[in-house]
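pls design
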């Protein structure tokens, strides 16, 4: 059962505003790339390739897009530079649609998976705790009974921040003292949530990447302990990435997807950056659904990622 099903005018305005810096960046580069040209030729395509790469779309995804546009130009014989934006929008939208990922209305909450368990991973500073708080708000707003688990026990600030969010949203949180076993926190959270008929549980985890083996072992332990309470938990492993870091977000995605079975992505802080093109590259490259994008500080500014609306916002309807 999806929680959000309608892409409202308000959501579109939030998306347009949040992507304005990226849109301005892409269009200014695109304008320079086609200056003095009336049709799309090899030079324009070379310039377009540079525009996409420097807009953090990523090399592999850029090459796919350029190849598609080359085929269109060859087929249509004559494509004007005025048509290029429309062509670019259509080919990027098609590329993302061809992924083995579908747009989600929200996190799915099957009736036979209750509570539905989301384990959230990501390095410190990417907006992980804020994303958890906003998710909790969205689920509660939809009438769901939400529990939070503060399993990032290595940083006191992480627990304190999550407690603030739990109070702000008005949902219960399970925590232990700093330095406690994260798996123990996860166990207690799921046990409490199950006993109190919760609909969804969101578990925070430590954001350390300096030792991938330790990280992998820790996340595996947390998952194994969860299964003692709910055999098929976690149902979602959500990786939070900071979109403003551009290609560094790619590297984090590589590290975490190697360390654990990530099956959903959230890309945050897109409102403060011109690097929003990274969402296109990440969505294409990892074949893991980008489920949410962060477009501001407000509770409502965590949005379900819709490929078509995202591309339309960047390149026009």
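designed seq:
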């Amino acid at each position: 059962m999806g929680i959000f099903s309608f892409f409202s005018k308000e959501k579109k305005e939030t998306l347009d505003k949040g992507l304005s810096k990226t849109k301005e960046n892409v269009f200014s580069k695109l304008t320079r790339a086609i200056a003095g040209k009336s049709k799309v030729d090899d030079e324009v395509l070379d310039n377009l390739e540079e525009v996409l790469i420097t807009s953090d779309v990523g090399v592999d995804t850029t090459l796919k897009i350029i190849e598609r546009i080359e085929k269109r130009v060859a087929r249509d014989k004559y494509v004007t530079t005025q048509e290029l934006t429309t062509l670019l929008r259509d080919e990027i939208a098609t590329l993302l649609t061809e992924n083995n990922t579908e747009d989600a209305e929200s996190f799915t909450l099957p009736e036979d998976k209750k509570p539905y368990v989301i384990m959230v991973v990501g390095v410190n500073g990417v907006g992980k705790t804020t994303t958890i708080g906003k998710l909790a708000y969205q689920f509660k707003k939809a009438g769901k009974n939400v529990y939070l688990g503060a399993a990032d026990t290595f940083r006191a600030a992480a627990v304190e921040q999550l407690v603030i969010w739990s109070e702000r949203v008005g949902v219960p949180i399970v925590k232990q003292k700093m330095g406690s076993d994260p798996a123990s926190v996860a166990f207690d959270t799921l046990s409490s949530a199950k006993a109190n008929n919760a609909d969804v549980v969101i578990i925070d985890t430590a954001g350390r990447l300096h030792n991938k083996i330790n990280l992998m072992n820790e996340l595996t332990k947390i998952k194994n302990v969860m299964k003692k309470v709910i055999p098929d938990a976690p149902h979602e492993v959500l990786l939070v990435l900071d979109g403003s870091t551009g290609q560094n977000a790619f590297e984090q995605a590589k590290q975490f997807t190697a360390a654990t079975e990530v099956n959903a992505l959230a890309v945050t802080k897109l409102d403060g950056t011109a690097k929003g093109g990274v969402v296109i590259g990440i969505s294409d490259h990892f074949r893991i659904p980008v489920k949410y994008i962060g477009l501001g500080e407000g509770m409502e500014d965590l949005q379900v990622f819709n490929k078509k609306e995202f591309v339309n916002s960047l390149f026009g309807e």
